Amino acid sequence: MPRSKNLIPGAVLTAFFTALALISFVYTPHDHTTVDIVNRFRKPLGGDFLLGTDHFGRDILSMIMVGARISIAVAVVAVGVGMVAGVPIGLAAAANKGGILDELIMRVNDLVFAFPSLVIAILITAVFGPGAFNAIIAIGIFNIPVFARLTRGAALSLWQRDYILAARVAGKGPVRISAEHILPNIANLLIVQGTTQFSLGIIAEAGLSYVGLGTQPPAPSWGRMLADSQTMILFAPHMALFPGLAIVFTVLGLNLMGDALRDILDPRIRRDAR
Q1: First to last CA, the chain
Q2: Residue 243: what pLDDT?
Q3: What pTM, to 2 d.p., does this model score?
Q4: What whole-number distance in Å separates Cα of residue 229 and Cα of residue 133?
Q5: What average pLDDT does range 134-141 have in this prediction?
Q6: SS3 for 236?
Q7: pLDDT, tens digit, 9 for 90 and up, residues 120-130
Q8: pLDDT tens, residue by residue, 250-260
Q9: Residue 27 resides in a domain
Q10: Burial bucket for residue 257 (CB in 10 Å: 0-12, 13-18, 19+)
Q11: Secondary structure E strands in the chain
Q12: What distance in Å separates the CA atoms of residue 179 and residue 143, rounded to the nearest whole number?
């Protein structure tokens, strides 16, 4: 198995923010919803506030901890929706290459790709209102064609293999072949893509919250923390610095993990490393 220099730093960053999210369920330094005007705009390392306070006197560290679990939860569920729906669709399209079903699936995918997740979120918000659940729907819908295309492309390269032809001669149908022979052989690609989409999901959630379409108050969100700080960045830069760093390092950790998993799971890299 090839080694990857990105594995350890990626795992450390990912584990750190995951730990922050899990710890926030049982402990935060302060109540992230408490408004304390007396302590507003406290600087980092100021008294009881390690990362300072915002314009309402709320503890920024506590808000980042709770925001971590919200961002991670939204990204996990959205990527899960994309994989659960997109992978079977891609397998079905590959099994019916050149048929009506394949053409229909690909054209619907093209239609969804024409609308970025932010546009989809605006459309959903116009009907159902803003919120984390609608952000999950928007990001999840955008992930479906991503996984469908990847699955179809990877599966098509396997359908002409000898062991697939042998399975067809043995009487196995397309569904059974896809489940027993195709899916296990493309799982590594799906895992790597899932890691990448996870990081993009965190960015998308932050972006939607930044424009007011994601997580709603009083629940904190890294994106909305950035939006709240934009008019105060000159005299309270810590309000933007720490949530911004949280997004950067979380996404960096996931991208490093994705690169490491690709190096480890890609069979071509494994062959070159021998």
Answers
A1: 8
A2: 94
A3: 0.86
A4: 24
A5: 85
A6: coil
A7: 777 777 777 78
A8: 999 999 988 88
A9: no
A10: buried
A11: none
A12: 21
Tokens for 149?
């295309």
Give the E-state strand segments of 98-210 in sequence order: none
d(C-alpha 37, C-alpha 153), whole Å: 56
The domain spanning residue 98 has which CATH number?
Answer: 1.10.3720.10
- Tell me the range of 4-8, 211-215, 222-226, 263-267 where mean pLDDT is highest: 222-226
- Which DSSP state fits 30? S
Report the alpha-carbon distance of residue 110 to residue 88 in Å, rounded: 17
Q: pLDDT tens digits for 223-247?
A: 999 999 988 888 889 999 999 999 9
Q: List beta partners, residue 49.
A: 46
Is 28 inside any structural domain?
Answer: no
CA angle 230, 235, 240 (to 5 degrees): 40
Say whether the peptide bond before residue 218 is cis (omega within 30 degrees of 0).
Answer: yes
The domain of 89 spans 7-22+59-273
Which tops the pLDDT comparison, 117 or 18?
A: 18
Asked whether residue 72 is domain-assigned, the answer is yes
**Residue 2 maps to a domain:** no
- Predicted confidence at residue 89, as pLDDT, reads 92
- Let me know how many helices (H) and strands (E) the chain has, helices first: 11, 0
As for how many domains the chain has, the answer is 1
Give start and end residues of each alpha helix (H) in 56-131: 60-95, 100-113, 117-128
Strand partners, 46: 49
Closest CA to 164 of 182, 148, 184: 182
Average pLDDT of the residues in 183-201 = 88
Long-range contacts of 256-259 (CB under 8 A, 24+ apart): 256/6, 256/7, 256/9, 256/10, 256/13, 257/6, 257/7, 257/10, 257/11, 257/14, 257/195, 258/10, 258/192, 258/195, 258/196, 258/199, 259/4, 259/6, 259/10
